[in-house]
Amino acid sequence: MSNKILDEYVQVLNDVEAKWDKLQILVELGKELPDFDEELRNETNEVPQCTSQVYVTVSENKGSIDMKATADAHIVKGYIKIYLDAFNGYSIDEFLEHAQTDIEEFVQKTQIDSSFLSSRANAFGNIFLFMKNKISQLR
Question: Tell me, what DSSP letter sits at residue 96?
Answer without folding.
Answer: I
